[in-house]
Amino acid sequence: MASPDALKPVLTPRGWELLNSLPEYDSASSAALNAQLRKEGWDPATVAAALTQSRLRRDAQAKFGEFASRMLLTPEGLQQSTRLAVAARHARRFRQARLEHVADLGCGLGADALALASLGMRVTAVDADETTAAAAHINLHPFPEAQVVHSTAQEWAEEYLAPDSHIVSAHSAESRFKDAGLGLWLDPARRNQRSRLWDPEEFSPPLSFVTELASTGIPLGVKLGPGIPHELVPTDCEAEWVSMDGELVEVVLWFNALTRRNADGAPVRRAATVLRTGVSAPGSTPASAELATPSDFGDGARLTASGPDGLSGILWEPDPAVIRAGLVAELCEQLGGRLLDERIAYFCTDSPGSGGTPLARGYRILEVMGFSAKRLKQWCAEHEITSVEIKKRGVDVVPEQLRKQILPKRPKGQPKAAGHHATVIITRLGDDRLAAVVQPLG
Ligand SMILES: C[S@@+](CC[C@H](N)C(=O)[O-])C[C@H]1O[C@@H](n2cnc3c(N)ncnc32)[C@H](O)[C@@H]1O
Q1: What is the pLDDT of residues 246-284, one digit of tens each?
Q2: Number of domains in the chain
């Protein structure tokens, strides 16, 4: 963790002014800027702290957009923080549940807290780390309704949620929290000084602390790594896997009043949310698509078995959020498709439908052949293919190695020959290994 001393020089009025007066950070000119500022009489510690913050603000733009230019950051805090567009979606869920006050227990630099405060909710942002809490205090300064507390989540909960010095019984807690319009948000730290942690009981605070809070009935959302094994996901929450621009970023477990219900009133248990924007301001809507089901994991796969012609028409590669949420069969059903195999996350439809779906990438199948490197090599030669994208599922193929095997060898020192590009998908249908030459849709 960054030491509180590292931030001190920029927390003085002059240091803060210096930081905000710096041009956008540029590695190439940072040494010259450092020398110039010291020549102007600035002390080395202030210059170093200001330049470090300036670099972190530049790096933070990808997550926080223009907000980054006003924030106080630490390297660890930035690495662990939620992208603002994703935080905005968390905040919207609290607002839709009509909660007025959210306690963010482990607020980090305050990305989630910022999004909650931006939507007009009162926020109590708690962090166990002194430097991080100081940074969150600065970042939340524009919101008078946001308060930062330097404490552990456990101590805070003990004091504010448990009048009898222990987390109160489910019944009394429920009515108490309803009255207060209070919800909880947690984003436990999932790495220690050395490495990433995988056991949810090693997270800080641990998952059992979170589920104990949730068992009181309080509306609660907790962000976890998307790779959490399905068997560790509690059965009484909505687990929402989220991807941003094709990258799986998190799973959020929503408990109690924050769990959504489907049209029949049944609580949603698994959901996939696919976001397709860069940074957007809190409150704005990133382009998104969702798929949700009230079914638990392990509901028997609903398969439309494919015959030998199963690999035809349009092949769909679901977004990682759909795959991780175990919703491939549901998406396939929704699009009127046929799964190739119970364990392979591809399915086919006869036509692209109207406008496709943001939940999967579609490929028009142009040609299908039995898979062998020799056969593909021949096909590439016949079609003058000089570059190829290889995708695969359910077959033991290393695309980089296969590419070398099937493309014509270029004699050393010779420029790349002019040729065509192809996309090839290799998969399994029953016992057959097949290669499909495809064209990405739109
Ligand atoms: C993953 S970060 C939170 C990031 C935050 N949601 C954001 O988007 O900026 C986790 C934070 O929890 C804090 N933390 C770890 N253990 C804690 C505990 N027991 N109580 C309170 N905060 C804790 C860490 O200091 C860290 O800042």
Answers
A1: 999 999 999 999 999 988 899 999 999 999 875 455 545
A2: 3
Nearest atom within ligand 1 for CA of residue 1: 25
Instruction: State residue 254's pLDDT score.
Output: 98
Determine how β-strand 220-224 pairs with β-strand 146-150.
Answer: unpaired
Ligand 1 mean position, distance from CA 3 (Å): 16
Q: Quick one: 209 and 252 in the same domain?
A: yes
Cβ < 6 Å from ligand 1: which residues?
80-82, 105-112, 126-129, 132, 152-154, 187, 189, 204-205
List the CATH number of the domain containing 104.
3.40.50.150
- Per-residue pLDDT tens digits for 316-331: 999 999 999 999 999 9
CA of 152 to the centre of ligand 1 (A): 9
Q: Is residue 275 part of a domain?
A: yes
For ligand 1, the distance from its centroid to the CA atom of residue 340, given in whole angstroms, is 42
Q: Decide: 78 and 2 in contact? Cβ < 8 Å.
A: no
The protein residue with its alpha carbon nearest to ligand 1, atom 16, reads 204
Is the pTM value of this prediction over 0.85?
yes
Q: Tens of pLDDT along 108-118? A: 999 999 999 99
Q: Which long-range contacts (CB under 8 A, 24 or more apart) does 196-204 make?
A: 200/224, 200/228, 200/232, 204/106, 204/128
Q: Which residues contact 393 (CB under 8 A, 6 or more apart)?
A: 344, 345, 346, 427, 428
Which has more confidence, 169 or 351? Answer: 351
